[in-house]
Amino acid sequence: MKIKRSALACAFIFSLLALAGCNDRLFDNPLDPEGETRAYEILATLPAANIVPLDLAFSGDVLWVVDAQSRILVLNYNSGSLIRELDFSQPVSGIAYDGNDLWLGIKNSNQVVQVSVVNGAQIKALNLLRGDVGCLDYAADRLYVADKLSNTILVVNPDSGTIERSISQPGFTINGLASGGGNLWTIDASQNKIFRLDDAGSAVNVYLPPSRSAAGLAYSQGYIWCGDQTGKIYKLKFQ
After folding, report:
1. What is the DSSP string of 10-38?
2. Where are the beta strands (DSSP E) in 51-110?
3. 3-state secondary structure (DSSP) of residue 228
C-alpha cells in the first residue's frame, strides 16, 4: 500500500510539472482555496522585445502599450512587432481606447487626458477630484481608473470628469485593469493573482497569472491580453 501511495504521489507531482511546462495552457493553482478549478488557455505569446508593459489597450486593429519608460507603443496584435510610437510629451501611467480616441493617465497625478490615435494631439484633459492615476479602461461610456492612493477603481464620467462611484477590490495593488464579459478584471502583482470581479468589486474567480511579472490588461471580444514585464504579451481565453 505504501508503494502504491508513493507511486500515486509521484505521478501527481509529475503531472503538475508537466502542466507547468506546457506552452498553450495554464491552470489555476489547485491548492488555492480562493481559486477555481477551471483553466484558461494561452492562445498566443507575443514577443515584445525591449518593452516592459504597464498597461494595454486594444483598438480592434492594433495593441496599444504603455511601458515603463512612458512610451506609447503600437504593436501588431498577431506578431508583437512594433508598428510605431505615439508622440506625447508627458509621462504616462495608463491607456484606454474609447472607440475613437485614446485616454491616457498622467503619471503621479490625478489627471487623465483624451488624445488623438493619429498624432497624440490632446483633445481634452480631466482633473479628477482625487486620486493618483494608474491603469485605465473604457467601457459603457465610462472611464475606469485605478487609483493608487485609495487602491480602488474610480468610475468616471468622461464628459464632466465626475467620479460617479468608487469600487473597492480585493487586491493590494492594481497592476492591470480591464472591463469585459460582464466583469472587471485586475492584476495584483503583490499576490501574483488575476481577479475576476463583479460590478461591486467582489471576487468571482481568482486565477494564477501566466507570469510572475504580469502587468497590464485589455479585453476584446471574449479574449484578454495580458502583459508580461519580461517582454511578452499573452492572449488568453478564459472558460
Report:
1. HHHHHHHHHHHT-SSEEE--TT-TTS-S-
2. 53-58, 63-67, 72-75, 82-86, 92-97, 102-106
3. strand
Domain count, the chain: 1
Containing structural domain, residue 201 = 26-238
User: Does residue 167 belong to any structural domain of this protein?
Assistant: yes
DSSP state of 202: -
Would 166 be classed as within a structural domain?
yes
Q: Which of 155, 84, 142, 93 is nearest to 117 (CA)?
A: 84
Question: What pLDDT, in 10s, does the model give residues 2-61?
Answer: 344 444 344 333 333 333 333 333 444 444 445 444 579 999 999 999 999 999 999 999
pLDDT tens-digit profile of 144-169?
999 999 999 999 999 999 999 999 99
1: Cβ contacts below 8 Å, ≥ 6 apart: none
Q: What's this model's pTM, rounded to 2 decimal places?
A: 0.85
Q: Report H helices in 69-167.
A: none
Over residues 165-199, the pLDDT tens digits come to 999 999 999 999 999 999 999 999 999 999 999 99
Angle 128-55-58 from CA coordinates, rounded to 5°: 100
- Beta-sheet strand order (sheet of 111-115): 92-97, 102-106, 111-115, 122-127
